[in-house]
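User: For documentation purposes, I need each entry recorded in a consistent format: the amino acid sequence on its own, followed directly by the corresponding structure tokens. There are two entries in this batch. Please keep commentary to a minimum and don't merge the entries.

Assistant: Recorded as requested. Entry 1:
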Amino acid sequence: MEAHVEDRRAFGMASGTVVLVVGTLGGAYMVSQALRNSIGVIAPNLAAELALSAAEIGLLSSAFFMAFAAAQVPLGVCLDRFGPKACMLVCSGIAVIGALWFAVATTPLGLVGARALLGLGSSCYLMAPLAFYARRFPPSRFGLFTGIQLGLGTLGTIFATAPLAWSAAAVGWRATFVLIAAAMALAGVLLALVVPGEPATADASKPTETLRESIAGTLHALRTPSVGALFLMQMSAYSSFVLVAGLWGGPYLTHIYGFGLQERGDLLLLTAAGQSAGSLAWGPLGRLFGHKTPVLIGSALTVLGLLVPAVVGKLPSTALVVWLGTFGLISAYTALLVAHGKTLFPPALVGRGMTLLNIGTMVGVFVSQAITGAIIDLFPAPGGAYPLEAYRIVFAAQALWLAGTMIPYLWADDPQAKPI
């Protein structure tokens, strides 16, 4: 009863309103996740329609993440100065414009520009809700709501698989992006109507933090112990999942196994569903063991998961299905990595500190996708299909990178560590 009263007082809202707010924040993140991972399923279609090379496909997908990363430092300042709601409303408008531009673009440069705008418009839909939860919920509840936010968001990743393939097959990928633009516009309206703004400060005479002080706070967050180790882990952890579900999984299933649009969408749905379930499954482990131990276990399992197709090569049909679903499940530990990062910063620096770490996440995806695209382009592609060896090297390279970043993370401080 006391916990319920504490939560209600923290939010200043009734329980039903809390559910509505969390659902709205999760829904907006869901749409942004669909945009983030939307290239994998339709990549072969884009390549055929616009004669894109593997490097160009990698650049097209990674442009989202580079723009996303570039927005994180100013986003962190804006979160602490103007609040999460204002940031999300501005970003929703940018995302709508980006989705409509992507729908009408007819050149590779136009697609890349639209994709970058989508990255900018989607840049706040994890960090802003998490900053909102951090300010309005007691610390003991933050891990729970992080898991809920990520779990709801991964439904957007699910949409970017089979449902996106079905829609692209029915009305075309361009019309599909118009529909996604409409969904983001609706999310923006709900954010404006449902999510409360910043609460009034207890001391109205307290001066607002200046821009110089905001930037100094970002530098302070950067100097926080263990930030470097977590930054490296953020670079490799999420990019491992996106490498499969968000970019090369679709071409891999088409070039190596001969699957068409709807078949590869159905198969990648297994990976996305595995991560959605895994986000909820991994989250509670933080309360039992702290953050670092489960993150290391999840990372080790993900390394092994990447090595399976790298070593075995072409998997039998049943093994392929099992691998796709299992990989999504074991790579979903990133919710704990986010929660770990939050524990390193004092309340005044949570927004800037977490967006700083999120730069690592997005830069990591950009680097991973750009480099793997260049690797695949080193191999001949008769008829536009890249050979198995190209994909084996890509999976092995990602596994090596993730394993390497685990080493400095071993010495990262975990304020909530518990003996096993």
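Entry 2:
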Amino acid sequence: MHRQITGRLVIATHNKGKLVEMRELLGLYGIEAVSAAELNLPEPEETGTTFAANARLKAEAAAQASGLPAFADDSGLVVDALEGAPGIYSARWAGEKKDFRHAMEKVEGMLRERDAFKPEQRKAHFVSVLAVAWPDGHVEEFEGRVDGTLVWPPRGEKGFGYDPMFLPDGFALTFGEMSRDEKHGLPPKGQGLSHRARAFLELAEACLARR
């Protein structure tokens, strides 16, 4: 039996881009969201070996520290030709300075080393696992995925992370070129296209009542 989310919720992230997306999604359901950064909660070390394990770890840490239900995402880019890299290390490839231009150049360099220039050789997907944890230890997890192709040079300055080099299947714009509504807006504003929006729709169906 799924548990309903009501009242105040902690968004267990210090990533400003993720925070904006999550707040917009939760706002549709009348949920008051406060970030881990605003509560001065420390960032736990991500020691999990899967997206789900890291999402759960972050949500549980925030729930225990705040005494409130907490919502965490762990997400990343999975590149077929790179045996699934960067995967759970997607953010770490950007380094302490969060330089995702450098991270994208690293991905592109590794693809070139493998002579992966054709679109069919540059297939990738984004994965997002959302975990909601309550202070009493109850946890629920939801996963979303979007498939696409990596392009070079990067296109667009919207979004964040690897968005400018990710062209979702069936679209002419990269995530970096799309507006927020086009990328992760929920119906009727958008199609719930992004991996995070798809995971959120699963979560919302189970745990949220739309106002």
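Summary note for entry 2:
The longest strand covers residues 139-150.
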